[in-house]
Fold Branched-chain amino acid ABC transporter permease.
Amino acid sequence: MSVSEAASSEAIDGGSGSEFRRGVMSCVPVLLGTTPYALVLGAQATQKGLSAVELPLMTGLNFAGGSEFAAIQLWTSPPHIALIVAITFLVNSRHFLMGAALAPFLGHLPQRKAFAALFFLCDESWALGLADAKQRTEAGITPAFSLRYYMGAALAMYLAWVGFTAAGALLGPMLGDVQHYGFDMAFPAVFLVLMRGMWKGMAAARPWLVSLVVAALVYLFVPGAWYVAAGAVSGLASAWLMAGDA
């Protein structure tokens, strides 16, 4: 369903459910790619000693896959809480920029709805919600940000992530090392699909390239998960420096 078709449908039935369903349906391809690495995270967590109860608590309260993979990699017994908290903050710091990009479209929402929307913010729901808001803006539809569409995508992503990480924790002991199945390749595949939807040409993609090169170099020469933070900071800095050149 296109944005204009959805807007017509929303006008006819008041948008009571069509926008929410549109959000869920737009998220289905992403969910197909997300499910395997949710299972991988669950299986890895059990290998580190987390139970099928503890893992959904973490993924439900934190809800940021990148930092959860980093936390599991750093998990020891007893865990180094300060280190895990610091890495989680660094990895999730990209949400500051994601929230700032989305903020201009949230002005018409009361704070309680805006805060609830931001709680369910993740890379996938952010990319889908922002792309949809820009399409509605170009089509002259107001408000540009469809909360029902966004929440359809975000809640589908949230429930699938928490559910399948828990399933991975339950199935992990039976499957063994799930990385042998190649499921971890789904993680970069999902982000490549999201990047394709936001592609605006090589000039606009230069900050992505800078982030990729810096993250790869830090990964090769610096131990730990610092490559994630380095990639995020270098991408932000290059985007700021190159602003207006694209």
